[in-house]
Every structure is written in C-alpha cells, then in structure tokens.
Design brief:
Layout (H helix, E strand, L loop, with lengths): L2 H21 L3 H12 L2 H12 L1 H10 L5 H4 L6 H11 L1 H10 L8 H30 L4 H14 L8 H24 L5 H16 L10 H24 L22
Helix pairs in contact: 1-4, 1-8, 2-3, 3-8, 4-8, 6-11, 6-12, 7-12, 8-9, 8-10, 8-11, 9-10, 10-11, 10-12
Length: about 260
C-alpha cells in the first residue's frame, strides 16, 4: 500500500466522521419524523443512527472499494462466540449488580435495549469499526496515536453527564480507558467488532438495570466491579492467544508506527 493511500484513508475518515458528528445534532428531529412512520420508538432510534451513519458507510467504501464494507467494519465474524466472550467478560459487573445493588425502579424494556444493545452496537461500529479501524487498518499509524484520536472523541461524547469539573475529569478518564479497552479487544480478536460490541452492551446493561449510578463515573464499588471486568477481558484475551500460539498484535512494534504488511499506507 502506498503512503498516499494511507493518508487518503485518514483524510476520508476524519471528514466523514466530522460530517457524522455535525449531523448528529439533528438526531431528535430525524427520530421524531421516523416515529410518525414506524410508530415504534426503538426502531426509530436504531434507524436514526443508521441514517446518521451513512457518511461513515460511504467513507468505508471510498477507502477500499474492493473490500466488503461489512468486513471492513469488523462485522464478518461469529456472532454467538463473540456474545459468549462478551458475557463472560462482563460477569463481574453482572454478578456484582445482582449481589450488591437493587434493580432500577424505572424499568423500561425499550429504554434498556436502546441504552445497552443499540448504543453498544452503534458506538462500537462508529468509533471502533470506523473512526479507529479505518485509520489503523489503512495507514501506518500505530495503536497509540489512532486510539488517542478516537478515544478523545468517544470520551468527550460522555461529558454531558455532569457539570462538576471533578466529576467531568473522572467521566472523561473512565470512558477514555473504556475506549482504549474496546479498541484493544477489536485488534487482538482479529478485527472482530462483535467482541467489544457485546462487552460494551453488557457493561451498559448493568448500569441500566441496577441502581449503581446515573453517570459513567459511578461510585467506588461499581468501579471495582468495572475494573474486574476489564481485568478479566484483558487476562482472558492474553491467555487465550498464548494457548493458541498467537502473538499479541498490539506490541512495541505497532504502538507508534507500523512497518508490516497489514494496513500500511
């Protein structure tokens, strides 16, 4: 791959994602219009994101027209296996929620599905599959510079949850580290986007069905449970790859600048 193609991928990714971020301001208007057609809020919610995501799908095609978009975004993998991994990794949070917290008093199935499964799918598809994946897989940029760009954007999107400066820093830190984890899992599971999708969805699920906290920061115990989930995901992935005789793809040679074959611009 020539350097020009790598730079082209970066430029297309940044432009298309900027268009998405701008158009996201019209989310409410689009969903309201779709509600009048579908009469089903959950479906309208998903369709709105898919409409807003059109620039990202177009960008994925423009970056590599010869490659299947579904594959380029990391969606061409075993769904059930990824579901199992995501559930396993999230067990500390799910079991901790059952043992130490009450179920939420505002139990709404559609809101829970929207806030866990749909948001988990959309955020991973747009932020990891597109913003991170298209630059990482189509340029020489290493893991750190790509993840910093994507993680800052991802974490910034959660700052609406509080107006307190100290809490904002905490929310930014937690969501930033979450973005790093999801991107790392995406790479180490061979661009299998479903693994971070399901883990993200299950982690969000615990926040919606248990009375943990109403922000991404949470209290001490919820963060301990979250840390255990992160640790389990990392340790399991490393041990699994070693037993399979596979090297970790994120290593010293891929942290800043990559000189191998895959994704080199």
């Amino acid at each position: 791959m020539k350097l020009e193609k790598g730079l082209r991928a970066i430029i297309i990714t940044v432009i298309c994602f900027s268009i998405y971020m701008f158009s996201k301001e019209y989310f409410r208007e689009i969903k309201t219009a779709l509600d009048k057609v579908t009469h089903f809020g959950l479906l309208s919610y998903l369709l709105t994101y898919m409409i807003l995501g059109i620039p990202l799908f177009v960008g994925t095609y423009l970056i590599d027209p010869a490659r299947n978009i579904y594959k380029s975004l990391g969606l061409n993998h075993n769904l059930l296996r990824a579901f199992g991994y995501g559930l396993l990794f999230a067990l500390p949070m799910l079991l901790g929620g059952l043992l130490f917290f009450d179920f939420t008093s505002e139990f709404n199935v559609q809101n829970i599905i929207a806030g866990s499964l749909i948001i988990g799918f959309v955020e991973e598809l747009f932020f990891r599959g597109f913003l991170f994946g298209q630059i990482y897989n189509n340029s020489r940029w290493g893991f750190i510079p790509v993840i910093v760009l994507g993680a800052i954007v991802f974490a910034s999107g959660h700052l609406y949850q509080s107006q307190d400066p100290g809490e904002l820093i905490g929310i930014f830190g937690v969501t930033f580290m979450g973005a790093v984890l999801f991107a790392w899992l995406f790479v180490e599971w061979n661009d299998n986007l479903w693994v971070p999708i399901f883990l993200h969805a299950f982690m969000n699920l615990t926040w919606h069905i248990f009375e943990m906290d109403d922000t991404a920061l949470g209290g001490i115990l919820p963060n301990v449970l979250r840390a255990l989930t992160v640790a389990l995901a990392i340790v399991f992935t490393i041990v699994y790859k070693k037993r399979k005789g596979q090297e970790l793809l994120v290593n010293r040679s891929t942290l800043i600048w990559r000189n191998g074959d895959k994704g080199k611009g």
